[in-house]
Amino acid sequence: MTNTxxxxxxQLPQRFDLSAEQxxxxxxxxxxxxxxxxxxxxxxxxxxxxxxxxxxSATANEAVKTLKNKLxxxxxxxxxxxxxxxxxxxxxAAVMSPEFLMEQLDWREAVNDxxxxxxxxxxxxxxxxxxxxxxxxxxxxxxxxAANDFENxxxxxxxxxxxxxxxxxxxxxxxxxSF
Length: 179
Known about the structure:
179 residues, mainly alpha
């Protein structure tokens, strides 16, 4: 099960856009898998059987986490289609356009200024704008995957990874300022 395709495991089509019903079925299938591999079922089994059940459970955990999160699902789709997002050259070439770099600098400056000024309202406004940007990137990613344009999907995913990191930082800043 360690090399199991997550989409196959949950009997889903191998695509980025999943319907609400398909996402709900992930939970149902996950519960079924976990019942099948629950440690109580393997108390009297061999160590190999116990280890196998543990591996299946871990794979199911990773699969459900990946498939239910849009960014992780996009990264996984790229991975199974031969695109390595961990390659630094690939990431650099994909996102280092001057426009993208300037956009990132502007975002960072606005967020850092708001944090340094302890302006939670500005941070929340930046968070909302950022989340709107993320929606647009996810829409583009869906279109690129639907067209099997993995190159452009990869570029959008890498850009979205930057935005995702910034979103987490804004949320962290808001948490810090709320105390």
